[in-house]
């Protein structure tokens, strides 16, 4: 497993796609702080529920503010990162050495998870720093222990993102083609991200939407006590998503013929 | 007795209703260069993939280095290298970086990289990305990549595919060198028997998923033996002359052609005798049966060859 991760490190270090993806995630908070500053400059006050990040302290919620963008970047990166192994035939080089398919799948998931972590960590740090410079650090309304809140909300938001990473990895291994994977991953994200708003108005489907991590990522604000009370459920749903999708992915990948 | 490296017994693979491999059995001993010959779509690449564990088989058994269990096979495959179909490389990485990735995959050090790049004449490629390499360079790099883990058994699927004549000669020499210098056993495929005959020591002819013949180099030499080809419109008269000369090993091919398989250095004397007996000879000369003709004769067709 360690050998496979070393190989991933070599590939990723030289990958232009990785640097482009990270650049997008890192530049985003800078653009947003400029945008917020212009908004305030024109006389509109920033509102936490609408703008999510309004000062340095709320910068910890950069993942929430940019949830959809992060997912789009991850879709493209993961689809290319895994799909090209099938398309270039390089997956044969690894598997024909007798490497376990479980290890191969897990190494890809871990590489994607590490990439996502570096991306969202950088984005959050830059978000906190840039908003602090422009608007001051300030505070999060109703939060007394900020460090605890920051660690908790960052971890949960990352876990919600990780659940999606797991789904995208599954789709990439199933489709074995980067373009098709991008399309299916995008459709999954749109469906689970935007349909809950409609379904939540119905009695039968309202609760079903809580089985998808996008519901929490897109429709919860992570500051009100009611939202914070949902954190255990977010953790459970994320973990179940990761375990089920990875389990299914590994099972199907073990049966896949490599052309 | 040489150790058996690969023993494939009754391997079958079915895609939908199509049986791509039909009870294929092959034995490869250490030191052999086993050439797998077949038309496009005969099942060569599928067989190689099955040996490498890339596809699941629907029937049969594979034994590698004496191992048959799933774990054992997985372990045995660490002693193998493969380049199946097109060279599988990372297009955005340099030659060195591609080898670094494969070294990491195999859990081996990077000490051999410089030597392998030199061996494959790729030492001057520097930071050039492999997407800018010629096909010949990519083929050589793919083989270097298979060698990074010091394999004992190499599987090469059509390694000369798409190469120009000098590239083909270069590739052939390189495989020969690997066998003599490193003692590697090789399974390679081609759809050209003539090309394989210049390198392989043993041959398996795969046709529509079945092994229809297995030959050694000596068997093939016999098949492709030399003969004197006589072209005449008076075959019956010519046969009488040949009998009088005591020539027994000959074959009347058709109404105008006789093949004589003995006294190959006496073509002039035979010609003189035929002319002396007023047999009109339109052509006489020494020639060799084309291997491709033999292959077509076996497979009974002309498609895709």
From TrEMBL, chain A:
Pfam families: ABC2_membrane_4 (PF12730). The keyword Metal-binding does not apply. The keyword Oxidoreductase does not apply. Keywords: Membrane, Transmembrane, Transmembrane helix. The chain crosses the membrane at residues 66-83, 104-129, 149-170, 182-199, 234-253. PANTHER family: INTEGRAL MEMBRANE PROTEIN-RELATED, MEMBRANE PROTEIN. This is ABC transporter permease.
From TrEMBL, chain B:
GO terms for molecular function: ATP binding; ATP hydrolysis activity. Signal peptide: none annotated. Keywords: ATP-binding, Nucleotide-binding, Transport. Residues 6-233 form the ABC transporter domain. It holds the Pfam family ABC_tran. PROSITE patterns: ABC_TRANSPORTER_1, ABC_TRANSPORTER_2. Belongs to the ABC transporter superfamily. This is ATP-binding cassette domain-containing protein. It comes from Oceanobacillus profundus.
């Amino acid at each position: 497993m360690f050998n496979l991760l070393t190989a991933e490190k070599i590939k990723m270090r030289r990958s232009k796609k990785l640097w482009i993806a990270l650049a997008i995630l890192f530049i985003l908070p800078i653009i947003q702080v400029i945008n917020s500053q212009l908004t305030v400059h024109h006389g509109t006050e920033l509102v936490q529920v609408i703008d999510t990040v309004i000062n340095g302290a709320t910068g910890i919620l950069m993942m929430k503010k940019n949830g959809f963008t992060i997912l789009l970047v991850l879709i493209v990166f993961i689809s290319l990162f895994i799909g090209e192994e099938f398309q270039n035939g390089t997956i044969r080089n690894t598997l024909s050495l007798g490497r376990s398919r479980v290890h191969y799948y897990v190494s890809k998931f871990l590489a994607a998870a590490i990439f996502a972590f570096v991306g969202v960590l950088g984005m959050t740090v830059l978000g906190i720093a840039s908003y602090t410079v422009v608007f001051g650090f300030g505070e999060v309304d109703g939060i007394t222990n900020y460090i605890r809140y920051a660690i908790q909300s960052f971890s949960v938001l990352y876990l919600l993102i990780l659940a999606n990473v797991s789904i995208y990895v599954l789709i990439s291994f199933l489709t074995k083609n980067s373009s098709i994977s991008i399309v299916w991953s995008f459709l999954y994200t749109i469906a689970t991200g935007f349909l809950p708003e409609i379904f939540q108005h119905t009695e039968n489907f309202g609760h079903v939407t809580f089985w998808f991590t996008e519901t929490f990522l897109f429709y919860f604000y992570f500051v009100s006590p009611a939202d914070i009370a949902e954190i255990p459920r977010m953790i459970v749903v994320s973990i179940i998503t990761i375990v089920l999708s990875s389990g299914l992915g590994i099972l199907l990948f073990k049966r896949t013929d490599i052309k | 007795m040489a150790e058996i490296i690969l023993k494939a017994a009754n391997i079958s693979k079915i895609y939908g209703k199509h049986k791509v491999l039909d009870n294929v059995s092959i034995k490869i001993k250490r030191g052999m260069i086993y050439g797998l010959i077949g038309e496009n779509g005969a099942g060569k690449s599928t067989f190689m993939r099955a040996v490498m564990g890339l596809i699941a088989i629907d029937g049969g058994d594979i034994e590698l280095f004496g191992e048959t269990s799933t774990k054992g096979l997985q372990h045995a495959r660490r002693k193998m290298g493969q380049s199946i179909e097109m060279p599988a490389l990372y297009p955005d990485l340099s030659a060195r970086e591609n080898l670094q990735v494969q070294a990491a995959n195999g859990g081996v050090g990077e000490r051999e990289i410089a030597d392998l790049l030199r061996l494959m004449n790729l030492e001057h490629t520097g930071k050039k990305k492999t997407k800018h390499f010629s096909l010949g360079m990519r083929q050589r790099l793919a083989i270097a990549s298979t060698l990074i883990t010091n394999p004992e058994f190499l599987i090469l699927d059509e390694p000369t595919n798409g190469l120009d004549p000098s590239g083909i000669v270069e590739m052939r020499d390189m495989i020969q060198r690997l066998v003599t210098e490193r003692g590697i056993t090789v399974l390679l495929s081609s759809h050209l028997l003539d090309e394989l005959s210049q390198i392989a020591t043993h041959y398996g002819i795969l046709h529509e998923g079945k092994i229809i013949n297995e030959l050694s180099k000596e068997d093939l030499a016999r098949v492709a033996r030399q003969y004197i080809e006589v072209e005449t419109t008076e075959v019956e008269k010519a046969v009488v002359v040949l009998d009088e000369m005591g020539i027994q090993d000959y074959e009347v091919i058709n109404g105008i052609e006789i093949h004589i398989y003995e006294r190959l250095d006496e073509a002039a004397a035979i010609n003189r005798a035929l002319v002396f007996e007023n047999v009109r000879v339109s052509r006489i000369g020494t020639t060799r049966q084309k291997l491709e003709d033999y292959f077509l004769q076996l497979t009974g067709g002309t498609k895709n060859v």
